[in-house]
């Protein structure tokens, strides 16, 4: 999968006057505009020119034999050594001997006879051949040198990053990929799914849990697959310090994103909603479980039915007594009872009254966990179909205990129009 990203690099081996398949400049046209003229003796040049012609005909092995003839000539000049090495590298690459081609391209890159303006391209060719030979450490080193001397080819950038990754240098790979992803996002571009997957794996291998969670947020933002939603919600609730009081909030998000995974998820969420005093919400979890075919079947069907009966009983009682405690919660010293009661009204479908009570509670303040209250108000707004107000409220949630992470995921979800 990674190799598909580096197809362009294959063109780098067709370089510098090497008239191999598709390269038409004769090898003996040695003079470079910025360099003094250099000559090649006939005993060296004749077999090299024959090798060029063989490479044009895609006869790499035969070309290597001709190059060996030139190599055997004694007392070659530095320029002749350079020409032999670079053509041999080309032929080796064409013959599929990436390891040998890499070594020869690297040697050519540091040759004093190599034109200064072309040395970076030889480094690129060497790096790409080391990559093809699966010598990822050397490929990364050569690619790094290429960029340090001013190389800018984006195809080699991919080779560099992937060599770091495949060579298991996950720390450096993460830094490079994160930089690339950041640049793309600043430019308004969408990072590729493969890049984000690689970055997520780097963070896992370096135990960067915070980085991993943020990468998963990008994956669900740009590629909202169910598996990514499962992973990102799981990463939030398993973060160190995630409090039990936010578990119901996570289950609300799981229901909205279709990531409830089994009968147990629906049962636990419904029970937690009952304990929180929200039987109308508990019924939503139970109904969703039955609709998914996960409740009401199998050996635990009777247990499921008992919970459903309990939920309906609590819901009927809540509907009968709804409103009886409004004056009392309005007189309370802090806004928590108002926010909770208002949310209950919203869950019953009385959006106007519920949201008004929640707004009143927010003004009163005095919360032990103010970010929880903001999270719940954002949730209420989205239930009421007031998307912009929900987004505005979710974006105010701060803190590091999980509330802000859940709020960011709601922002992503609402941004996807669902």
List the helices and strands and how they pair.
Elements: H1 42-56, H2 60-72, H3 78-95, H4 98-109, H5 119-132, H6 136-148, H7 154-166, H8 170-186, H9 193-205, H10 209-222, H11 226-237, H12 247-257, H13 263-275, H14 279-291, H15 301-321, H16 326-331, H17 336-347, H18 351-364, H19 370-383, H20 387-394, H21 403-415
Briefly summarize what is shown.
The protein is 67% helix and 0% strand.
What does this structure look like?
This protein has 418 residues and is mainly α. Among the domains are: 2-168, Serine Threonine Protein Phosphatase 5, Tetratricopeptide repeat, CATH 1.25.40; 176-223, no CATH class. The chain has helices at 42-56, 60-72, 78-95, 98-109, 119-132, 136-148, 154-166, 170-186, 193-205, 209-222, 226-237, 247-257, 263-275, 279-291, 301-321, 326-331, 336-347, 351-364, 370-383, 387-394, 403-415. The radius of gyration is 33 Å and the shape is elongated.
Which keywords apply here?
mainly alpha, 21 helices, disordered N terminus, 418 residues, 0% strand
Q: For the CA atoms, what is the radius of gyration?
A: 33 Å
Sum up the overall morphology in one term: elongated
The CATH topology of the domain at 2-168: Serine Threonine Protein Phosphatase 5, Tetratricopeptide repeat
Discrete helix count:
21
Give the helix/strand class.
Answer: mainly alpha
Uncertain parts: 1-37
Which second-level CATH architecture of the domain at 2-168 applies? Alpha Horseshoe
Number of E-state strands: 0
Determine the mean pLDDT: 90
What is the CATH C-level name of the domain at 2-168? Mainly Alpha
Summarize the main sheet: none
Question: Helix and strand string, N-terminal first?
Answer: HHHHHHHHHHHHHHHHHHHHH
Beta-strand content bin: under 5%
The rounded distance between the terminal residues' Cα atoms is 31 Å
Instruction: Provide the helix percentage.
Output: 55-70%
């Amino acid at each position: 999968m990674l190799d598909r990203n580096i197809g362009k690099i294959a063109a780098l081996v067709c370089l510098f006057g090497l008239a191999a398949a598709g390269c038409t400049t004769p090898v003996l046209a040695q003079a470079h505009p910025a360099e003094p003229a250099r000559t090649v003796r006939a005993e060296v040049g004749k077999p090299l020119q024959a090798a060029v012609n063989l490479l044009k005909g895609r006869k790499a092995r035969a070309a290597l034999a001709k190059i060996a003839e030139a190599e055997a000539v004694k007392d070659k000049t530095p320029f002749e050594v350079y020409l032999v090495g670079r053509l041999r590298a080309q032929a080796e690459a064409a013959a599929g001997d990436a390891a040998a081609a890499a070594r020869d391209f690297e040697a050519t890159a540091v040759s004093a006879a190599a034109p200064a303006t072309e040395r970076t391209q030889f480094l690129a060719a060497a790096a790409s051949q080391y990559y093809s030979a699966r010598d990822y450490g050397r490929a990364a080193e050569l690619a790094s040198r290429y960029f340090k001397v001013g190389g800018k080819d984006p195809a080699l950038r991919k080779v560099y990053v992937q060599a770091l990754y495949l060579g298991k240098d996950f720390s450096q790979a993460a830094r490079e990929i994160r930089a690339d992803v950041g640049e793309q996002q600043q430019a308004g571009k969408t990072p590729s799914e493969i890049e984000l997957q690689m970055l997520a794996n780097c963070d896992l291998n370096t135990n960067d849990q915070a980085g991993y969670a943020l990468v998963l947020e990008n994956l669900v933002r740009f590629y909202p697959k169910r598996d990514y939603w499962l992973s990102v919600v799981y990463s939030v609730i398993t973060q160190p310090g995630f409090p039990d009081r936010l578990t119901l909030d996570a289950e609300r998000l799981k229901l909205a994103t279709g990531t409830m995974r089994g009968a147990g998820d629906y049962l636990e969420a419904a029970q937690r909603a009952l304990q929180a005093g929200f039987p109308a919400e508990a019924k939503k979890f139970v109904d969703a479980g039955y609709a998914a075919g996960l409740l009401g079947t199998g050996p635990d069907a009777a247990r499921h039915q008992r919970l459903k009966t309990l939920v309906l009983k609590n819901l009927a009682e809540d509907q009968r007594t709804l409103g009886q405690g409004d004056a009392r919660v309005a007189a309370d010293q802090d806004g928590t009872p108002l926010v909770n009661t208002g949310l209950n009204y919203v869950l019953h479908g009385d959006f106007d009254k519920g949201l008004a009570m929640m707004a009143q509670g927010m003004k009163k303040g005095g919360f032990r966990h103010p970010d929880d209250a903001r999270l719940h108000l954002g949730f209420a707004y989205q239930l009421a179909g007031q998307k912009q107000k929900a987004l505005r409220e979710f974006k105010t949630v701060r803190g590091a205990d999980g509330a802000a992470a859940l709020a960011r995921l709601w922002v992503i979800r609402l941004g996807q129009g669902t």
